[in-house]
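If you are new to this repository, start here. Below is one unmodified record pulled from the training split, so you can see the exact layout before writing a loader.
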Amino acid sequence: MAATTTIHGTGTVFKDCGHAPSYWPKCAHGWKIRYRNAFGKQSQESGFPDKDKASERLLEIHNQKASKPANQAKAQRIARYGQMRFDEYATAWKEGQRHLAPASVGHLDSLLQHHLYPAFGSRRMGTFDHKVVDGFIRTMERNGAGLATQSNAFDKLKAILLDAHRLGLFEESPLLGVQAPVYDPKKAVIPSPEQLRNLRLAGDDIFTLLVDVMSGCGLRNAEAAAVNVNNIVADDVYRVTEQVNQTTKHYERLKHRKPGEYRDVPLPARVKDSIEWYADKYGTVDGYLLRHPHDAGRPYQPYLLQNQWQRLKRSGAVDIPEGMVIYGCRHFFASNCLAHRIPITDVAEWMGHKSLEITFKIYRHLMPGSIGQAAKMLNVELTA
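And here is the target side for that same chain:
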């Protein structure tokens, strides 16, 4: 089979009937055309009665492509990115994630290096589909990866593939129909009021202060390490403005917040007294109550709190149930709020959760009331 090129750059007009090209004008077989479509893929049409009709159709297709710059741009993107390796594409995508805090960048790097690159490093971007993605999830399951790891790795893969989908690399999203891993946190182990009282007395003054601000204001470990007397903005309001970043070891923006953003949380009188007592007894540095024990020029590090917690557990000086961690003091705050019928929407905001869904998953079992109780309460007015 020979082919005759018509207008330069449009495609080819030919027959593949087996006859020599010199016999094509007399041959009864139809003419065919071959060209590249708007997406850069080779396409073919057949059944044209003569060469002129085939050439006209080829020119029509060429003009349609030329009249649609958007399609041309899309075709160029597919040609450029579709053959790119996943590791190259992901590296370029990562450079655009300028909103990520240093700790989040470290977490992303870990997921890329340990999970995504080993699975997809050399795969061409244009070859992803739902079967490839589903196979990745199944492989993680077979390898015994925890649900949290599965969920985090899938979320990063999803973000990268959605970015590629927006560029037009896929006619159909490779995530369509894929059942994502679901990370369902275990029920939090929360200290009782008596256990909390014992914890306050078990450690040193730093430990007492941190237990107070975590259980009374709902601060995370790293946020409590940055406790500042100047953040008491009212007698009953503490403003959470920063945390000690466990990667950089310095004061950084809050989790899920932009630089300069903050959240105001309730400040019980007991906690206010505790903060002011500590400030009066030990003094402050720019308002910060806690500094590194070996270098007052450095922030207090959250791991120091964890170290003291482990020493208390080993000593047996206080009753610490199996599964309870120091973070349980923050859980106590949520439990205390919900037990007093404070709306879960307020609790989610005060705790700084990224979404209400997270708060609901962890603390739903603590919310007072049930469907049966609701039915009885609603019936009061209905039968009045």
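Two things worth knowing about this chain: The longest helix spans residues 147-166. The chain is about 50% helix and 10% strand.
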